[in-house]
Amino acid sequence: MKLNIRMSAAVLAVLLAAATGCSDKATGGSGGTGKDGVKHGPGVTDTTIKLGVITDLTGPYAPLGKGLTQAEQLYVEEINKAGGICGRKLELVVRDAGYDVQKSMSAYSELQGSTLAIPQLIGSHVASALKTRINSDKVLTIPMAWSNTLLGSEYLQITGPTYDVDMINGIDWLVKTGAVKKGGTLGHIYFDNDYGASALLGTKYAADKHGLKVVEQKIKPTDTDLTNQAGALAKQKVDGILLSVGPAQSASAAGVARVAGFKGPILGSNSAYAKQLLATKAKPALLQGFYIATAGIPIQEDLPALKKIRDGYAAKFPGQPQDSAVVTGYSSGEIIGNAIKKACASKDLTREGLIKAHRSTNAFDNGQGGTLDFTYFDKPPTLQTFIVQPDEQAISGTKIVQNRTESELVKGYKVPLA
Amino acid sequence: MFESPRWVRISALVAGVALMLLVPFYADTFWMQAGLFAIAAAIGAIGLNLLTGATGQLSLGHAFFLAVGAYGYVYFASESDNHFVGLGLPTPVAAILAVLLAGLVGGIFSPIAGRLKGTYLGIATLALIFIGQHILSNAESVTGSHNGRQVPPLDLGFLVFDDSPELVVANVPLGAFERLWFLALILLVISAWVARGVLRGRPGRALNTIRDHEIAAGVMGVPVARYRAAVFVLSSMYAGLAGVILALVFRQTVPDYFGIILALDYLAMIVIGGLGTVAGAMIGAVFITLLPQVLTRYSDGLPLVAAPGSGGFSPAEAARIIYGAAVVAVVLFLPGGLFGMWTRIRLAVAARRHRAV
Amino acid sequence: MTKFIELVVNGLSVGSVYALIALGFVIIFKATEVVNFAHASLLLVGGYITAVFHDDIGFLPALAAGMLTAAVVGMLVEFLVLRRGRTSDHGVLAIVTIGVDILLTTELVRRIGTDVLDLGDPWGSQSVTFAGITIPQTRIAALLVATVLITAFLLAFRYTTWGVAMRAAAEDSETASLMGIKLSRVSLGAWAVAGALAAVAALFLTVFPTPGLDRNTSLVALKAFPAAILGGLDSTTGALVGGLIVGLTESLATGYQDQLHFLGHGLSGVAPYVVMVLILLARPAGLFGTRELTRV
């Protein structure tokens, strides 16, 4: 009878669904030990080690995400060409979350079960949202944001100084060069999020120690017209303008400030500048008196490690900009690679083994000039900052004004934890 | 008229329920999370459907009430410490209070809603979204601003909806998502049942009359203002409940999520699903929530392999394009939404069978 | 005092650009009773075309091309999508425009990518200073151009055949069509004009002091919604006034945000919406909108 067909179809559907949806949940997922006696964590097999990337290729941080991801792909390709690590090939699993929290959480849910570590996570609010899960899942994660709120967690590793540290070093430099004197005033335009809040902490500390006053201007990341803010600061005749905003806002602020007659220095955090800006009308304002405090070494510097990255990136991605994201991305690959190598030596490629190996590195040196200390996580792995300036001819779009420096001022600063 | 026999419908229902109950034993984390998002969205969509589909009050502010539910729960359930404030109430109580709070806020807004009609009401409710975002990013001690706050897991005494006290059933470890799944399902069934009851009974007919012929309804003795306010409160409570579930799934509440994109998503859910029906709202919610997840999961995760600037679409962009096209196509060609299409197919099949007999 | 005057001039200038967007929005609503959520993408199309072509064919031709493209896209949306809508429920048609907006915006943002595009305007960052007040030339140009366009449009609306046809169709479409007015032409015209106005708005939203057109520019078009609503969705005067009010509110809220600090930071985003709600409480159909009279 026709009704029986319906019944059977329903039962069949249930059975089919039950059979096809079957994952190895009942047995507890991947794990076990490899043929060479190395213990396996999620994403590790006898031939591959999977690493997860939660990036932004289509949202507001697309330029950053693209550079980071491609540089990481370059690193993985080079490592695999040389035989991989621990006799296993590295494999990147890339998920584009477009800076959206829900998508990032979904990507994390997927990657947490299938990859060993996460060398790239874009979005500090995303990292904060996932912190509890990252800690309980024990996934070594490198968030691509440098806010102090990301410190204090064993499994989160930021790869440079936090925004407040950069600001302190930067303000110290401004005072040392005489551009800003004791008793002067600094105007700080910053984003209403933890990027801006973190930078402001540094400004307040440095200003206090140098006897400077601070005028604050908070803006939303979606504001692109800074006439009111920059104009107000210029009118108040501040001695220096600090920008902890995005590239578009920096261009607007710098342009407005100069037109309003502001002649002092403008100092931006590392996320406040992007090479693309030099192709816009804002170029003149950016080429004169505009500086950036950043931890990243410009890629054109004359070091063999950087030349390797430049050449490799130019070969694999010809014509693409080689900005700070490329250096950061490649380094993030190296940091995780370093941890995997050490963990392999202890024959333990589980998550616990990986974090132990990582946290045992106290002087990570990838040939870029400085060293990073991963043995602690309540402060940044380094306190050294570069001061750079936009430069049309330079490959990275910036050139060094002051080489990496850890100022005396920042030595006494304790980075507040979340 | 051409419905299948009762026992067939019941066995189909039972099979469906069994299927749903089996999911946590087989699905991986990604699908568990996606499914939970879909269930929460379904509950929210049912509420919005009561407001917009049944009563004709266009609301673009639904995401605001979701935020009230989510943040309300966090506030009621967390303890105060040196960063944040909270009332530290037992979590089930906090959850119920959060839902009631959402309803209360809806009630406060409803007189404003009562004065406005059509698009004016729609954009006024959009104001709620912006006001909500403003409050969420400024009231730092309550909301934790842009980083949000940690969400205390629901603790029913005998069962904690978290990963830690381990729970193994049939050799499968059931973590937080799996446990939440059962709770969310129960809540969805109750929500759907209540909404259906409202829509099929006298209140439902009154609401529909208010939507279609407001003056006539008033003349006939329907207390229009009171009903409009009541449905606003009810719909806000549904949103609040969805918000609580989302908070429990996210484990950290972030204000970015409750913005204009989510508001437009909910509108799309009830229209695509089929305006005016509970089943439609649920179908629309599942469709809108799962579509981008499926697309990003199953397309190639390395979109940059093609030369840059070439005509390729990244998975995220493809997901948005298909989503936009789906909205346009369903609205233009399927006036009853997906549920309307399903009903027509079912009736057409049954009719053909009847004719053949 | 100079601060206040500068804020006001700035606010009026930005407000006049919002008025351009809101006017287009209202024109579409008057002609077709559809709330156009795709307006942001029309704006983006116009701006994008201008940005892409200004190097090759010069600024003014590129601007004209941008306006033409936006107008054509608007007409295509009306012709292909909205006319086919089987339902005449305008709320549902509005949802279609949401879908169209997603489609258009995604594709345009994909093309713009990570670039910040220059539209090749002739004013650059030059400013005019008098009596201690500095105003960028772009702001003055925005104010002038917007005034000219809006005045031209209002005159056309009142005195040309097309304008009368549109007003008639908005008033009572059945009778208008019985009187021989081609409703399809009226709606096509409305969408075309709205697109062209949006393209001009795109220009003034991306000149100094913003660095250029990028993927976030379309979000600014969202600000036209409260402008159109608080002026009254079916009133062109309302769109003008609404745009100015929103521009002024934003400018003053940003300029005085220190004094208004107790209301929280980032007030300029939410202030226009609050003003809108307050106005709606007093006048539920906006300042100049017609209150719906229903026949029993």
TrEMBL record, chain A:
The keyword Signal applies. Residues 48-391 form the Leucine-binding protein domain. It comes from the Bacteria. InterPro entries: Leu-bd, Peripla_BP_I. Coiled coil: none annotated. Keywords: Signal. Belongs to the leucine-binding protein family. This is ABC transporter substrate-binding protein. It comes from Actinomadura craniellae.
From TrEMBL, chain C:
It is found in: Cell membrane. GO terms for biological process: amino acid transport. Belongs to the binding-protein-dependent transport system permease family. LivHM subfamily. Keywords: Amino-acid transport, Cell membrane, Membrane, Transmembrane, Transmembrane helix, Transport. Its main location: membrane. GO terms for molecular function: transmembrane transporter activity. InterPro entries: ABC_transp_permease, BCAA_transport_permease. This is Branched-chain amino acid ABC transporter permease. GO terms for cellular component: plasma membrane. It holds the Pfam family BPD_transp_2. It is a multi-pass membrane protein. The chain crosses the membrane at residues 12-29, 59-80, 92-113, 140-157, 188-208, 228-248, 260-282.
